[in-house]
Amino acid sequence: QKEVEQDPGPLSVPEGAIVSLNCTYSNSAFQYFMWYRQYSRKGPELLMYTYSSGNKEDGRFTAQVDKSSKYISLFIRDSQPSDSATYLCAMSLNAGNNRKLIWGLGTSLAVNP
Amino acid sequence: NAGVMQNPRHLVRRRGQEARLRCSPMKGHSHVYWYRQLPEEGLKFMVYLQKENIIDESGMPKERFSAEFPKEGPSILRIQQVVRGDSAAYFCASSPGGGVPYEQYFGPGTRLTVT
After folding, report:
1. Chain B positions in Cβ-Cβ contact with residue A90 (cut-off 8 Å)
2. pLDDT tens-digit profile of A41-66?
3. B69 touches chain A (CB under 8 A)
4. Does residue B96 belong to the interface with chain A, where contact is any CB pair within 8 Å?
């Protein structure tokens, strides 16, 4: 079983739709939960992070963490064609020198005009 | 402020040759991380380095792979005697000293193809 599970999609939605992306994980010791966006042939770019549980909002993006269910979500409101990319969740223990990120496979999103 | 730089962007090697991938961190960053991305496996952590020190190499294959981050110059990921299975995108990230995991800023990657 992978430490982090993420449905690779692809996911195709019309412009303006609300997009819901999610990951599940098995290691209850994870403390930091991140969402990255990756365009084709580019490096990952941090969108949002959350420490421990709760919600965080930034413009059209909302990140949620439910540690009791080991489940995290990213919501994109009023989706735009420019949001078309692969969305990766990543998690970390951040214990001492352990700063490695553990990644989901990524979900490919296409927003159609 | 230039971001993380990686070169070459594309590298083709024949089986058995050596591959050297370079990473220049963001200005002021003293920590470097290497990740490998394979289509069916996603991104995997390989190694975490500070200047002149390997902090965590738990993701590095035991053979043929090595990494360094010298006092001067870029970080180098070296793959000896490459095999077809080494074909992947290799990403470098950098962060300021200490800090939190979300402060890893990624470069554009080096795409290695082994023929």
Report:
1. 43
2. 899 999 999 988 889 999 999 999 99
3. no
4. no
